[in-house]
Design goal:
mainly alpha; two-stranded antiparallel sheet; single chain; 11 helices
Length: about 210
């Protein structure tokens, strides 16, 4: 339950607040347990595989964020990325996401290792939404985006179009060309609409 997860956090070995941190910092063990609880949260393909906001773990994490500073996930992130639950792996991918300054090389290395073996569409969609802007910077991620445009799942194809069609990917090899090809052949109405609305943001002549 939400209450049970919040109580678990409150009873953890949390670091007290101090002059630098106005809120206490959640114990990493409790943080990992909270992320593991996301295995019950179902991803929604219609909203780019975001985990159900009504799930107890998602609601509890929202409450806990208001009470505690969250610690680094580095000590347990590899375990989460290898977890058998797709929902846990998807949540772990979001923890690798960047800030206004982008993602880190270390986190991009972790996600490149993951895309080499990941088969679950919810995790794949979350990788796309989290790392789409790194397509030009990292050849493996760029190739992954292009490959996902051929996914049988329209929600995966739509995620690529929505999250990768920006100037960040102007130089991603093959992406604009693949999108230009699919504009003419895409059968799913939502994906086709996103192609038409967003593809021009890449600024490539092949699309125009």
């Amino acid at each position: 339950t939400v209450e049970g997860l919040v109580e678990m956090a409150d009873k953890a070995n949390n670091k007290p607040a101090d002059e630098k941190n106005k809120k206490p910092t959640l114990d990493p063990v409790a943080y990992e347990a909270l992320i593991l609880a996301h295995k019950e949260a179902k991803p929604d393909p219609a909203s780019f595989f975001r985990l159900d906001a009504k799930a107890p773990s998602v609601k509890a994490l929202s409450q806990i964020r208001g009470k505690y500073n969250l610690p680094s996930s580095e000590v347990f992130i590899d375990r989460l990325l290898a977890n058998p639950s797709p929902s846990v792996r998807a949540k772990a991918v979001t923890l690798l996401g960047g800030s206004l300054f982008g993602t880190t090389a270390a986190h991009r290395a972790k996600v490149k290792a993951l895309i080499a073996k990941e088969t679950d569409d919810a995790v794949i969609g979350t990788i796309i939404s989290t790392f789409a802007n790194d397509g030009a910077k990292e050849p493996e991620i760029g190739a992954f985006l292009v490959k996902c445009l051929s996914s049988e799942n329209p929600a995966v194809r739509r995620a690529v179009v929505v999250f990768s069609t920006s100037s960040w990917n102007f130089k991603t090899p093959g992406l604009s060309e693949k999108i230009a090809e699919l504009i003419l052949t895409e059968k799913d109405a939502k994906v086709r609409n996103d192609f038409l609305e967003r593809a021009g943001s890449l600024g490539k002549d092949v699309i125009f």
